[in-house]
Design goal:
The complex is a heterodimer of chains A (324) and B (280).
Chain A: H1 2-33, H2 51-55, H3 61-92, H4 96-111, H5 114-124, H6 130-137, H7 151-176, H8 180-187, H9 192-203, H10 205-220, H11 224-229, H12 237-246, H13 251-278, H14 287-304, H15 312-323
Helix pairs in contact in A: 1-13, 3-7, 3-10, 4-7, 7-10, 8-9, 10-13, 12-13
Chain B: H1 2-5, H2 15-38, H3 54-60, H4 63-96, H5 102-110, H6 117-143, H7 151-176, H8 180-187, H9 192-221, H10 224-229, H11 237-246, H12 251-279
Helix pairs in contact in B: 2-12, 3-12, 4-7, 4-9, 4-11, 7-9, 8-9
The chains are: A mainly alpha (324), B mainly alpha (280).
Chain lengths: 324, 280
């Protein structure tokens, strides 16, 4: 047994050391460099200074940070709100062929190069493009309005690029969801929507939580999207960091900003890991978990007996039927 | 529609299907526009001038793009190889270990999956800049090696972010295979090493290949991390595409996008067919 543990240790060592050096250590280096001065070549000077931290008080930053925050929240909300009905629909399609076809259609944008998808929006919102011509012709907007290079374009492209990321984890739990629970709920007198709310949504909550993480955290760190389809008034923290590195050549300041973003990302991450610990393990092959799921079904069933939608007579009827 | 009639019971809400269709339209309209634009003879998009394959022709003869593609493939090859090896080892460790260290290890392996690219890119850049500024001088005089940002740093960066994906895929495969096969082999007296090479490895090989493919795709697609850690003159295909995109919407990129889309479709359909055949 001891030999086996030794063997395991060496198996895991290379990846661990690699990530320690090239993932954990760089994060610490970022905090470290935030306290260094800039040198004339755009590199790092000697000694220490609080200058970069003080520069964080830049008046334009609060607006940028607020915009990053609300755009992240809104994108996440829209992506989840859209993904839930989609996954509900997809998981219910009885024909496997049709189901796979739709799934494929959703997955192809997920696998398509990120840049290409942003590019597609640059074409779509192009001042000389079909959509612009259509909107002007319909009288919705004047000729002079630019569809691109503003914060709404950024938001739209963020939602566009993140929807497939939200769909996949929600779909994988929807697939495993036992839809007979919903039929049971309706038999017990719940309306479609009530069953959806009280049975389906809690059932897929783990997938939704994962989807929130997978959209929110990359959204907070969005760089390419504001850089390519945003304008002067739609900077987000991500593309500010890039500007500081490549345009201003101010690495310590970029580090300071990155440190702020790291903290902003770290908090939801920790919350997520904590939530996962509370809601149990991932593996659904665990027989103990399967027993737990059986338990849950019984508990859900009994809790539905006491819904306001039910007449007491229906409860009595169900009780009689169950006893037969 | 057939699949509606099959659903029994009370009237099914059409709302989810409506959302699904609207979302699909939303997802594909910009892509369809790019496909149309790629065949548009006009250079500036917008009005349709006439059908033309000129942009595909220009793409085919575009030396800079071919060079960028070559760089991308070289980087992807090395990154895939090393990240697959490291990732598989990590997956094996996570599968077999029962130690309390497992959760720390898992956190380290899995958090790179959701950390934003820019944080990974900038932190690696800072590490490299620091190391180069501290060690560059004496390494250069002692070993004659000039340390700089370049292919090496790009490959290191790619290995770092691909590793976790490989581990995730291989571990999933490890968890779903029948452990009783191993126990049977052990009962028959086979040594651990023999079991590993003759039983475990062949069974998880599809997972390793899937992980390698995943790593390869991530590496060729990566822009942000590559952008931060590359040297001044290095170009990969995404780097080229982005620099072209900053200047607007050059028509050649339309053609390139369509090629990407077609390849993605083929890739996704192909793997789907492969997976369904393996299952049956």
């Amino acid at each position: 047994m001891k030999l086996r543990n030794c063997g395991n240790f060496f198996l895991g060592l290379p990846a661990f050391v690699w990530l320690l050096i090239f993932y954990a250590l760089p994060a610490i280096v970022v905090f470290f460099i935030a306290f260094k001065p800039v040198d004339s070549n755009g590199g790092i000077g000697d000694g220490w200074t609080l200058r970069a931290i003080q520069e964080l008080k830049d008046p334009s930053y609060p607006a940028i940070m607020w915009r990053t925050f609300w755009q992240g929240i809104v994108s996440t909300f829209v992506c989840i709100a859209v993904s839930i009905p989609i996954c509900y629909q997809l998981a219910r399609i009885p024909s496997v062929k049709v189901k796979n076809f739709f799934l494929l259609l959703i997955v192809v944008p997920f696998w398509t190069n990120f840049l290409i998808r942003i590019y597609a929006w640059k074409v779509f919102l192009h001042p000389d493009g079909a959509l612009k011509h259509l909107l002007v012709w319909m009288g919705v907007i004047p000729q002079s309005t630019m569809l691109l290079y503003n914060q709404w374009a950024v938001l739209a492209v963020m939602i566009y690029t993140y929807i497939p990321f939200a769909v996949l984890p929600i779909y994988s739990v929807s697939e495993k969801f036992d839809f007979s629970l919903l039929d049971a709920a309706k038999d017990l007198g719940a309306s479609s929507f009530y069953a959806f709310r009280k049975v389906f949504l809690p059932g897929i909550s783990k997938g939704v939580l994962t989807a929130v993480m997978v959209v929110l955290i990359p959204a907070f760190g969005a760089y390419l999207i504001p850089d390519l389809v945003g304008g002067k008034d739609s900077h987000l923290v991500g593309d500010m960091i890039a500007r500081r590195v490549f345009v201003d050549r101010n690495l310590p300041h970029a580090s300071a900003l990155s440190a702020v973003l790291m903290i902003a990302v770290f908090l939801p991450l920790v919350a997520f890991i904590w939530f996962r610990k509370i809601f149990g393990s991932k593996s659904s092959d665990d027989p103990r978990l399967q027993l737990k799921q059986q338990d849950t079904k019984q508990r859900l069933g009994s809790s539905l007996l006491f819904t306001p939608e039910n007449g007491i007579s229906q409860t009595q009827q169900k009780g009689e039927e169950a006893n037969e | 529609m057939k699949f509606f009639r099959k659903n029994r019971g009370a009237a099914q809400s059409r709302f989810p299907m409506l959302i699904t269709l609207l979302t699909l339209i939303f997802l594909y309209t910009p892509l369809v526009m790019v496909v149309i634009a790629s065949f548009n003879a006009s250079k500036y998009g917008g009005s349709w001038v006439g059908f033309s394959l000129i942009w595909y022709d220009k793409l085919f003869h575009h030396d800079v793009i071919w060079n960028a593609l070559l760089n991308t493939l070289i980087i992807a090859f090395f990154s895939t190889f090393f990240s697959t090896v490291l990732g598989t080892l990590a997956a094996l460790y996570l599968y077999r270990t029962k130690s309390k260290f497992k959760s720390i290890y898992s956190t380290l392996i899995y958090t790179p999956l959701i950390v934003p690219d820019i944080l990974m890119g900038i932190s690696l850049l800072m590490l490299f800049v620091l190391v180069i500024s501290v060690c560059g001088g004496w390494v250069s005089s002692l070993l004659g090696i000039n340390m700089h940002l370049g292919f090496t740093t790009i490959i290191i960066a790619h290995i770092t972010f691909c590793l976790s994906y490989v581990t995730m895929v291989v571990l999933a495969r490890l968890q779903e295979f029948d452990h009783s096969l191993i126990e049977a082999a052990q009962d028959l007296g086979a040594s651990s090493l023999y079991i590993f090479f003759k039983v475990t490895l062949p069974i998880i090989m599809p997972g390793i290949i899937a992980g390698a493919l995943f790593a390869f795709t991530l590496s060729i697609d990566d822009f942000v991390i590559t952008f931060f850690v590359k040297g001044a003159g290095d170009t990969t295909l995404p780097i080229y595409i982005q620099s072209a995109m900053r200047r607007g919407t050059p028509a050649v990129i339309n053609a390139l996008s369509v090629i990407f889309l077609v390849l993605t479709f083929v890739f996704v359909f192909g793997t789907q067919k492969l997976l369904s055949r393996k299952k049956s």
